[in-house]
């Protein structure tokens, strides 16, 4: 188990992370989410042993993870960190960049493992091309195969799909996370893309203002976000006064409603005036106004600007969001 205990960190006296406390089990997949600059990469670098925390301690299987103040060569051998800059050997082929890190002595076994990893990252056709001749997205995939070749016990992924095209991304994410689960590799992924997180991470931690402000099973965080910040990490969301939703409600509370949770009706519901339509492919995201309250909701079809439509939310959703966490 990875244990992070009361860890704080600052860059030149500017606090970035404060009093972080969590554990990650063997083979577990945890996601770290939060807005840009909230400290996701910093946290991964501390776990890897590249940055020295100001306070607190880190252990893996009850053994301390030492920071750069105590390690001549920073970075623990059983942890691999896939950073946002890939750190490849540019004048060496894709295949050699990967096979160099395989701890296999027999040539046949070496070829087989290299091939397996090339297939995993979908780069078989590029095996003999020098890395400086392949695209940014392809380099990101080579970098990933390289860290997998080293058979880490803990894998830290920093925005691992940021350079990979949508066409390949979905399949690739599924393959990678299945591969890690099968081998019981503990994985921590920093991302601000919920599609990297929602289908794959067992648990998610949300960082904001130097602290973990929400954590739990990923689906639970999504279904019952504690506030608009958490909800927005998972998609287009609104925070709406409950008396708009139910006119008889005698409370000033607000509830979170995702854009896709509204149903559009021409007859009854919350009255909104259509302000703007945004094409999303499978649907339109519509900006509407209910008095001064801006509401974003999904519609199957484009809606006429300045027309009035009515929005409905299921009772189940209202009750779910009204329930205290
Ligand atoms: N080497 C550094 N020296 C000083 N400040 C830094 C350094 N690296 C990062 N920071 C600052 O620390 C904060 C956290 O940065 P970090 O890169 O960890 O955020 P992040 O959540 O990973 O962001 P992103 O999602 O944009 O990658 C930011 O305010 C950043 O400007």
Automatic annotation (TrEMBL):
Record keywords, A-Z: ATP-binding, Nucleotide-binding, Transport
PROSITE patterns associated with the record: ABC_TRANSPORTER_1 (PS00211), ABC_TRANSPORTER_2 (PS50893)
Keyword DNA-binding listed: no
Pfam families referenced in this protein's UniProt entry, alphabetically: ABC_tran
SUPFAM superfamilies the record matches: P-loop containing nucleoside triphosphate hydrolases
GO molecular function: ATP binding; ATP hydrolysis activity
InterPro entries on file: AAA+_ATPase, ABC_SmlMolc_Importer, ABC_transporter-like_ATP-bd, ABC_transporter-like_CS, P-loop_NTPase
Residue ranges annotated for the ABC transporter domain, each copy included: 2-234
PANTHER family: SPERMIDINE/PUTRESCINE IMPORT ATP-BINDING PROTEIN POTA, SPERMIDINE_PUTRESCINE IMPORT ATP-BINDING PROTEIN POTA
Name used for this protein in its record: ABC transporter ATP-binding protein
Species of provenance: Cerina litoralis
């Amino acid at each position: 188990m990875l244990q992070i205990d009361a860890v704080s960190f600052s860059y030149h006296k500017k606090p970035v992370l404060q009093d972080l406390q969590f554990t990650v089990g063997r083979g577990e997949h945890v996601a770290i989410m939060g807005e840009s600059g909230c400290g996701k990469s910093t946290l991964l670098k501390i776990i890897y042993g590249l940055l020295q925390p100001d306070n607190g301690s880190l252990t893996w299987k009850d053994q301390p993870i030492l920071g750069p103040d105590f390690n001549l060569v920073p970075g623990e051998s059983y942890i691999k960190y896939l950073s946002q800059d890939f750190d490849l050997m540019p004048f060496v082929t894709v295949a050699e960049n990967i096979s160099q890190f395989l701890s296999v002595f027999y040539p046949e076994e070496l070829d087989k493992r290299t091939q397996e990893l090339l297939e995993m990252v979908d780069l078989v056709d590029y095996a003999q091309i020098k890395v400086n001749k392949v695209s940014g997205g392809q380099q990101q995939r080579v970098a990933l195969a390289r860290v997998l070749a080293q058979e880490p016990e803990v894998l830290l992924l920093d925005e691992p799909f940021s350079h990979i095209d949508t066409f390949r991304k979905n399949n690739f994410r599924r393959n990678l996370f299945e591969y890690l689960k099968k081998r019981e590799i503990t994985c921590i992924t920093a991302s601000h893309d919920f599609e990297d997180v929602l289908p794959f991470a067992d648990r998610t931690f949300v960082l904001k203002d130097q602290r973990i402000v929400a954590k739990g099973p990923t689906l639970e965080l999504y279904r019952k976000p504690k506030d608009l910040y958490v909800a927005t990490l998972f998609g287009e969301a609104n925070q709406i006064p409950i008396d708009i939703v139910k006119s008889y409600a005698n409370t000033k509370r607000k509830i979170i409603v995702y854009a896709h949770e509204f149903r559009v009706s021409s007859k009854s519901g919350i009255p909104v005036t259509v302000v703007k339509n945004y094409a999303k492919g499978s649907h339109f995201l519509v900006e509407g106004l209910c008095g001064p309250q801006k509401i974003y909701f999904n519609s199957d079809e484009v809606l006429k600007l300045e027309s009035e439509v009515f929005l409905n939310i299921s009772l189940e959703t209202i009750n779910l969001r009204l329930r205290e966490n």
